[in-house]
Amino acid sequence: MEQSQEIQVGDQIIVQRQGYTKLHKLKKHGNMVIGKFTVQMDNIIGQKYFDTFQMKNYSQNNKLYILEKVEDGKNVGNAVNIETSGMDNRNIVSDESAQTLTKDDIDELQNSELNSNAIVEKLINNSKTFNMKTEYSQEKYIKKKEKKYFEYLQIRKPTIRLLTNMFYRQDPTKTLGIRIDDLSQILTYANIHSDGNHLLYDSGSSGLMSAAVMNAIGANTSGTLIHMHPGNECQKNAFLAMQFPEEQTHRCINVNLYSVLRCFYQNKNSFVDNICNDTEDKSEGEPEPKKAKLDGEPTQLTPKEPQWKLDNESACKILNNKCDSLIVTAKEHPVNIVKELLQFLQGGRQMVVFSVTKEPLQDLFIYLKGRLDIIAIKLSNNFLRNYQVLPERTHPEMMMNTGGFILSAVKLNS
């Protein structure tokens, strides 16, 4: 079933203000803090995704802003008219005297009418040094002020790309340092497809890996994901943000690593027998006659099994038939984890292990080299390099890292 294109109460949305994005669960009469602005979100309910809204001052509260739908957000750089530019910045003294407007004047201007074009234009007109700056410095100044006073928001539907970039920008450690280029390579090497059974061990990506795999499997398919994690509860911020349909959510089985392995070893020989016995009982067995309940006889209720136990049994039945891929994104050293989980991978299938540092993967590389059933072992560090593209100023971005390391291999048929 296709998701609605209208914004509704309870939806997980991404609010974008220029390059800044924030995940928010929409509530009726709810507010959202973005930067230093507190915004009332009621006016976006019933509107379309990708619509643009302008923040307006609320008449009864100067610190609260309401949203008003507009056709498109205006660019300050195109609206401001730059008359003259200097040759260099050598004679410019940067101090408080360069701006004749005081902080109180700017605050009053901002409270009276939040309009980035008007605010930036008045800041430029009251700056003693703006016309002395070079054209490049003037552009930087306008972009800096535009970023501070920009009043347009765009409402977007969460996607894997948006969530990956947002989590990475906020705190890379919360997603194990996985960037969008790392994620795309992991899914490609693992050969995720819609009708396979996939095995994932994830110990700290805020649900990003499980969300990405389930998104690749797709809705209304037969594919399943066994998501193993080390704690009592798995991390699922990104998974919930994707708002998968209920049938797709049920095909992601979240189990504790140690609990499901214990269940598998204790009942290893009974999974197939249990399935056969259940089928025979349903097809051949006759229903038992109901017994009349006597007055005063205590009612005996069958205790309901906990959900984690049912999930363990479902996962063990799939593990008994082997999986089509193995992905490990762990904070822990991966050798022992991979050594334990490789038995559940079918022959001729891929395994992928991600780590921010290369030393754990080097140890894993040596271990896999010693096995006769593992081939095509590859340890790589391919990353997407972002470039600034401007006239006469095209170069790689200065503040960036090289992503993580990925080990991929293929298991042979035994």
UniProtKB/TrEMBL annotation:
Query: Which coarse location class applies to the principal site listed for this UniProt protein?
Result: nucleus
**Which keywords fit this entry according to its UniProt record?**
Nucleus, tRNA processing
InterPro entries (alphabetical)? TRM6 (IPR017423)
Instruction: Give the subcellular location.
Output: Nucleus
Region listing for Disordered, in residue ranges: 279-305
Give any single GO term for biological process: tRNA methylation
Q: Where is the composition biased (Basic and acidic residues)?
A: 279-296
Question: Which Gene Ontology cellular component annotation is one that this UniProt entry carries?
Answer: nucleus
Q: Which Pfam families match?
A: Gcd10p
Q: Which family does it belong to?
A: Belongs to the TRM6/GCD10 family.
Q: What is this protein called?
A: tRNA (adenine(58)-N(1))-methyltransferase non-catalytic subunit TRM6
